[in-house]
Amino acid sequence: MANETNNPETLALHAGYRADPATNAVAVPIYQTTSYQFDSAEHAQKLFSLQELGNIYTRIMNPTVDVLEKRVAALEGGVAALGVASGQAASAFAVQNIAHAGDNIVSSTNLYGGTWNLFANTFKDQGIEVRFVDPADPKAFRKATDERTRAYYAETLPNPKLEVFPIAEVAAIGRELGIPLIVDNTAAPVLCRPLDLGAAVVVYSTTKYIGGHGTSIGGLIVDGGNFPWEDFKDRQPYLNQPDPSYHGAVWTEAVKPLGPIAYIIKARVTLLRDLGAALSPFNAFQIIQGLETLPLRIREHSRNAAAVAEFLSKHAQVDGVIYPGLQEGTARDRAAAALKNGHGGLVGFHIKGGKAAGAAFIDALRLFYHVANIGDARSLAIHPATTTHSQLSVEEQHRTGVTDSYVRLSVGIEHIDDILADLSQALAVAAKAVPAAA
Ligand code: PLP
């Protein structure tokens, strides 16, 4: 049945698993094992030579993680996925799989801070240059490209600006030049399917909406199976030339009988094997529990966030609301083209009274948690200027869209009346704390 539908509500519950082959258990079991007995010497040899796919060692694959991988691949319309220990590991592997020292990638400037650090500092140390461009102009990606550019990178719905990335436009430029677009879809699962718009690879921090309950760090890379790596032998050497780390395998040829999975197999059997950022089976189980209700939750997140944005936009203590559903012009068009059935759960706003009012507002919240996270079923809030972005200069803060007055909300799925009541009372406290600001 799961193979016969594209409906996310059904796929999230059924794709990749029917019942445990060993016990008939309906819930996905936690396979808490490090290793797997081979049927015979021949079987072992076939697994290691990739003639057959199967379990070898949990650093590289695990049956619980496998269900999560298959399920998210199905939801995204991809061919296969790789579960890893965190969203950070997913972003790093997605790029390192096709870019080595001396190469470069072109990335949108609008990124999660952790990804920014990875790209601007750690990749730089590893010899991978990241060329940051403003996504307002998709043509900037082409302009920044040279013969050593191996990938384009962006987030679907980056905060704090919450302006949807022009996925189709940049993917089309990349496809002409042999450059895959990698999209971090963490903030918009189900609402957006980047592969349908031309992206080649999707990455997730499953820590956020997919897990959804704030219990487990995890990450995923989804291979669209839709990128013609073999047509760009010079541009994509690591999938087209013999790989010395796997007996000289040429990935586009070695796994052809198994499907268009060269990219994701290489990531699994080289990067995951060597760097070891494996997702634990227990975390995969927790993330699967979240995934099963993701389509339902993301609708509620979106519905509540739209109501919060509306409420804040009319509030006397608020100086402006950042939310895709309230944008105009190009930003609105891009949101309409990429997001279906909702604008996600993130809302930003500027509070009157700047930093002091922002801090007073956060301290007064009683339902919202004050945490550096997004995508939990519970409502979350943070004042970036005094927390996540406090190490940046004021100029850098402004460039990323953060000002003293900016507050970020990750709106949860509590009853909307309770969410609005909490915001209302905290705004009233903030107004009293900074009377001169009003
Ligand atoms: N990508 C985005 C958009 C994120 O918001 C985050 C974390 O906040 C990450 C990646 C990194 O994920 P993790 O914390 O699971 O490593």
Q: How does this structure look, described?
A:
This protein is about 40% helix and about 15% strand. The protein is of the alpha/beta class. The protein folds into two domains: about 10-290, Type I PLP-dependent aspartate aminotransferase-like (Major domain) (Aspartate Aminotransferase, domain 2, 3-Layer(aba) Sandwich); about 295-435, Aspartate Aminotransferase, domain 1 (Alpha-Beta Complex), CATH 3.90.1150.10. The strands form two sheets. A seven-stranded mixed beta sheet has the order 1-7-6-5-4-2-3, sandwiched between helices. The chain has a five-stranded mixed beta sheet with strand order 8-9-12-11-10. Helix 5 (about 115-125) links the parallel strand 2 and strand 3.
Largest sheet: 7 strands, mixed
Name the strands of the widest sheet in spatial order: 1-7-6-5-4-2-3
Would you tell me the structural class of the helices and strands?
alpha/beta
CATH topology of the largest domain: Aspartate Aminotransferase, domain 2
Shape: globular
Radius of gyration: 22 Å
Report low-confidence residues grouped into runs of 5 or more.
none
Strand content: 5-15%
Order of helices and strands: HHHEHEHEHEHEEEHHHHHEHEHEEHEH
